[in-house]
Amino acid sequence: MRRGLTVLAALPLLALAACGYGSNAENDPAPQKVAAGAKKIDGLDSVKIGYFGNLTHATALVGVQKGFFQKSLGATRAKYQVFNAGPSEIEALNSGAVDIGWIGPSPAINGYTKSEGKSLRIIGGSASGGVKLVVNPAKIKSLKDVKGKKIATPQLGNTQDVAFLNWIAEQGWKVDADSGKGDVSVVRTDNKVTPDAFKSGSVDGAWVPEPTASKLVAEGGEVLLDESSLWPDKKFVITNIIVSQTFLKEHPKAVEAVLRASVETNKWINAHPDEAKAAANKQLETDSGKALPADVLDPAWKSIQIIDDPLAATLDTEARHAVKAGLLKDPKLDGIYDLTLLNKVLKDEGESTVDAAGLGVE
């Protein structure tokens, strides 16, 4: 598994957003005041942070809204960009337009492998879960009824697409990964339009992340399967923290400051779930111009676990699923993680350290 990488060139594989629901990339949507007397870190004027306008990026949403990142960075200003898709965030990281970002596992894998291990490192975790198979109950009453139906996923080769293709294979059904044709029709549909496609009947269900899953439920859909039920301890990575290797090497103190803010934010979220949910929704409104209604926000929020652990073993498994589906060939993920600074922060906070599952830097 962890030897020699070649991504199949014919497909836009694993470069796509883990979530893909949110606003367009936007410069500094939440400029914040710097505390009086604060000092710059590493002499930096700013640190550029990227994230998606998704609930699965709750750490970033709440950290921005409540000012945790700016507080930790002192007089070094936190600047933000909001993205819709993984490829654009990876491009921004590679160009230096973003230094650190919250992103899904598939674009992180692709960004790392396409650069032959030179572009980024995963330096922390952020969220687990929040992915469901939601179906039209009039057409699909059991898992076996999925056969022969039209099921949406966000994009070819994205995190949910890979998971659904793997689940299909485990049922003994056959689907061509590229075309989506076979025993199940896999329809690649942007998360923003999937609810309308579901409502019109052009798809019978969808394997999608939150809040799209809860939007479908609000349209009369029923949750047939929660992906977390398929994983050990019901945990699997949905959002990572990545950093440019150049920025990590040149500004480790700034990276540590962002990680410290992330750990503090996660602790606050888990201690104040209702306040955190409101803060995340307020930031979503700031970023996209529209807050989520309660019938979507509440169930979506409950299905997402906010964590510091990047759940490295599950990323390895997700890569294996992509290989099984024919979307990756011989991926080399050795060194994709550098959890040194995260574990330093966790030790300082009296928390348990986390493991890179054999995929850390040597």
Would you write up a description of this structure?
There is one protein chain. The protein is α/β, with parallel strands linked by helices and 362 residues long. The protein has 2 domains: 46-128 and 236-348, Periplasmic binding protein-like II (D-Maltodextrin-Binding Protein, domain 2), CATH 3.40.190.10; 131-234, Periplasmic binding protein-like II (D-Maltodextrin-Binding Protein, domain 2). Helices cover 37% and strands 17% of the residues. The chain is built from 13 helices and 11 strands. A 6-stranded mixed sheet has the order 2-1-3-10-4-11, sandwiched between helices. It has a 5-stranded mixed sheet with strand order 7-6-8-5-9, with helices on both faces. Helix 5 (159-170) links the parallel strand 6 and strand 7 (185-188). Helix 1 packs across helix 9 (252-271). The protein is globular.
Topology:
Blueprint: E1 46-52, H1 58-65, H2 68-73, E2 77-83, H3 86-95, E3 100-103, H4 105-114, E4 120-129, E5 131-135, E6 150-153, H5 159-170, E7 185-188, H6 194-200, E8 205-209, H7 212-218, E9 222-226, E10 237-244, H8 245-250, H9 252-271, H10 273-288, H11 294-302, E11 304-306, H12 312-324, H13 340-348
Parallel strand pairs: 1-2, 1-3, 6-7, 6-8
Antiparallel strand pairs: 3-10, 4-10, 4-11, 5-8, 5-9
